[in-house]
Amino acid sequence: MDVDGHPGLEAAKAAIRALPPKWTAASERAAGGLWRLPRAADAVEYALAEPQEGLRERGWVMVRARVAEEIGSGRDWTREAAVWLARAGATWRESARVTGDLAWRARAEGFSALLFLDEAYVASLDPDTARGRALWHCFLTTLRYDFRCVAIEEFFDALPAGRDHADPYTDALRAFALLGRSRTEGLALMEAVVARAGDEDKVVHALLHGLWLGENLPRQASLMLDLLENASFAEGLLGPEALFRKAGALRRLRQYEPALAAVQGAIDCLDPGEVVVHADCVRERSLILAERSLHAAAGAGAAAAASASATGQGAPVDEGGEGRRRG
Length: 327
Prior knowledge:
327 residues, globular, Tetratricopeptide repeat protein
């Protein structure tokens, strides 16, 4: 019997072809059910081996659903993710997309990658292999989500000489750590990363995150807005996270009305389960409103003082010739 023509395998392959090519909550539920079909794993390997981009993307939907099941069970999901990324010979872009989303999900559900990976083990892996790169991405991305910039810097500083070659997403995570600590050398690394892979949204989001977290960097808010005009958002469609960052940048530039529009846009396009991002957006909206009120009050006070000075109505003068002070 021709193994490749096994009825169970053919049925599983046909079911995968019928999946939506992009990951959504609905496609994940559908893909989760397909894992119960006979020969499902073989069908996923087939999909991931196909050069046709649409079918390979459907294979990644299946992988995400499989790893999501591991996360839900509390098992070591990083191992399962790395196994499938290695089997498929994942590119750095595919690795960044798959691990970035899964690391966020696992962290939210209480099964952070840091429960299964430690610095010494990850550093021992070869990031030039799909498996090693996947685990580097899982580990470093989770540190990013935890705002652990120092830990990311220490990880890179501890690497032996000659191990500084990295894919653009890994470099973006290193730039995030530098920018998040307000270190200007992160700006040069950011520029180099954008030149290499400015069309990849996972790269751009990591850089935006670093600029958002840092303080008093040169042209900080303007650089954030420049990144949001990047090729990764060429269609002009910004997701909720990008709109949230845009609102923060506009607030720093005191452009309060556009900032409010951006944060409201972020809230409007959130999925129902994104409660953490929703809370971030609500806090950002409160900051915008508070700063707008303070700026308006300061402007009104300055205008009143200027008007009083122009009409000669200065502060009362006592007999000693000094203006009275309020208590």
